[in-house]
Amino acid sequence: MGEPSKGRPSAGDGVGGNRVDSFRIRVVLADDHPGMIAGVRHELSNVSTVELVGTATDSAALMALLADVPCDVVVSDYAMPGGEVGDGVALFGLMRRRFPDVKLVVLTMLDNPAVLHTLVTQGVQCIVSKSDAISHLVPAIHAARTQGKYFSPSIERVVGSVDWNRRSRNPDGVLSQREAEVVRLFASGLTVNEIAERLHRSKKTISTQKAKAMEKLGVTRDVDLFRYAMENGLVAASSKSSDG
Questions:
Q1: Do residues 85 and 59 lie in contact, with contact meaning Cβ atoms separated by under 8 Å?
Q2: In whole angstroms, how far apart are CA 69 and each of 3, 179, 237?
Q3: Which of 95, 99, 97 lies closest to 80 in space, CA to CA?
Q4: Considering only CA atoms, which of 30, 22, 185, 21 is closest in space to residue 102?
Q5: On the CB side of 48, how many CA atoms lie within 13 Å of its CA?
Q6: Would you say residue 51 has pLDDT above 50?
Q7: How far apart are CA 52 and CA 54, in angstroms?
Q8: Spatial separation of the C-alpha atoms in residues 121 and 129, rounded to whole Å
Q9: What pLDDT, in 10s, does the model give residues 169-186?
Q10: Is 118 within 8 Å of 231 (Cβ atoms)?
Q11: CA 53, 57, 61, 62: dihedral to nearest 10 degrees?
Q12: Cβ count within 10 A of residue 9
């Protein structure tokens, strides 16, 4: 991920010695790669304004940790397969509903414009690429805590190339109306259970419709399903007043 940046604040910085110590951002890190957790832990240990209060290797562990440990900012990988509550947009939507005061930094290897479009239109304003220096996490965490915006250089380049005005709902008629509806809600951050409740269908029916949609589209991963939804306008940018 690159070398740590220099010039970090130290415990003695600031007026009176305790000024920096009094400002601590409590961070929870979620990533399914132990090496990444170790690298981020080392990077954040050098930052006096950030305190790593817990780590998780899947979405279920993350949600349990947030319910138990006070946290200001979550730094989470986008793709963490195997968790009981999903990953990606579905996880972030659930986290936002259950823990609305917790801010988010997405740490990801993905550089797909559709996926990044999804994140931004869902209100994620701090995204760091794992291909950039790990030191970019520090300003991203500070920006997230203050409801600011931070994209690492690789993310900034991709986001700048996105066509924010693209809207072409299911143009080829590949999916049935019900399948498209399930894909839209899933890509908007709802779980299968939540979609079933909203549409007054059984969980089994929703799971079947999602599976059929993925089969028709020739995709096997939820990330690719999100990509299809964004590229074909199935997810509305309801969280933004403007797509610019």
A1: yes
A2: 30, 38, 32
A3: 95
A4: 30
A5: 15
A6: yes
A7: 6
A8: 18
A9: 454 456 787 888 898 888
A10: no
A11: 50
A12: 16
Contact 102, 72 (CB under 8 A): yes
> Which token pair is 15?
């007026």
Q: What does the block give as tokens for 1?
A: 């991920």
Alpha carbons 59 and 87: distance in angstroms, whole number: 6
Q: In this structure, what token pair is assigned to residue 91?
A: 């996880």
pTM assigned to the model = 0.65
Residue whose tokens read 């760091």: 128
* pLDDT computed for residue 21 by the predictor: 46
CA distances (Å), origin 172, targets 108, 115, 211, 212: 31, 21, 19, 16
Dihedral (C-alpha) 182, 183, 185, 186: value to the nearest 10 degrees?
110
Give bridge partners of residue 103 from the DSSP assignment: 73
- In the chain, the amino acid numbered 69 is V
CB-CB contact of 14 with 20 (8 Å): yes
* Cα-to-chain-centroid distance, residue 129: 12
